[in-house]
UniProtKB/TrEMBL annotation:
Organism, scientific name: Lithohypha guttulata
SUPFAM superfamilies assigned: NAD(P)-binding Rossmann-fold domains
InterPro entries: NAD(P)-bd_dom_sf, NmrA-like, NmrA-like_oxidored
Pfam families cross-referenced by the UniProt entry: NmrA
Keywords associated with the record: NADP
Protein name: NmrA-like domain-containing protein
Organism domain of life: Eukaryota
Domain NmrA-like stretches: 1-163
Family, per entry: Belongs to the NmrA-type oxidoreductase family.
Length: 186
């Protein structure tokens, strides 16, 4: 019988990459059923997912809704987005990660794959302290590692699909014409 893989962010870049990879792989698609979790099951992206996955409503900031969305799940792929407009964006995103991880444990999920990033604060020996999306995900990884759940961590470079949004990184603006650290397209 196939196992259930839940994907947070399935309507976005990373999560859709996970859904598509599993669906396209002959072996994985036999072994796993995919549940896409979205805050809005009626969005165009969510509707487009219906032919690839079970699409269910869930919100990483709403514990009860997330618990319901994760019922019966074997493995969870989790990602988070930065939190803007708050006094402490690091703590705000970390609390979302903590909620996801705590609910995963409570729901008896066996395996949690979390999309993390390195801590800029640590890598720079404390020089750069304001890179909340990185530091929050690093803190989230550390927290998950303390929990009674099997876990793995994916640490992406910059997404190729977002490269056009950053013209300063396009090759004709870089003297060496070499760009390191980009993930394959999702
Ligand atoms: N861009 C890069 O080069 C890069 C590189 C490394 C890491 N990152 C990190 O990647 C993250 C963004 O990932 P992405 O580009 O895959 O995202 P994205 O395409 O912007 O999509 C965001 C996804 O998050 C879901 N989401 C947002 N808030 C949610 C909530 N409260 N509960 C449940 N789902 C929620 C959205 O689902 P619905 O709207 O359907 O609910 C959507 O699927 C950021 O944290 C960034 O730091 C980015």
């Amino acid at each position: 019988m196939s196992k259930l893989l839940a994907v947070l962010g399935a309507t976005g870049l990373q999560g859709s990459g996970v859904v598509n990879y599993v669906r396209r792989d002959p072996e994985l698609s036999k072994q796993w059923k995919v549940r896409a979790i979205t805050r809005n099951v009626d969005s165009d992206k969510a509707k487009a997912l219906r032919e690839k996955a079970e699409v269910v409503k869930g919100n990483a900031t709403d514990r009860a809704a997330l618990a319901k969305a994760l019922e019966g799940v074997h493995t969870l792929f989790a990602m988070t987005t930065p939190v803007f407009g708050v006094d402490d964006p690091l703590e705000a995103e970390f609390q979302v990660i903590k909620t996801i991880a705590d609910v995963a444990v409570e729901q008896g999920i066996q395996y949690l794959i979390f999309s993390t990033l390195p801590s800029c604060r640590d890598v720079s020996n404390g020089k750069y302290t304001g890179v909340a999306p990185f530091d929050a995900k690093a803190k989230g990884k550390e927290y998950i590692e303390t929990l009674p759940i099997k876990s793995s961590f994916y640490c992406p470079g910059s997404f190729m699909k977002t490269l056009p949004l950053r013209p300063c990184l396009l090759h004709d603006r870089i003297p060496t014409k070499v760009i390191h650290g980009f993930s394959p397209a999702t």
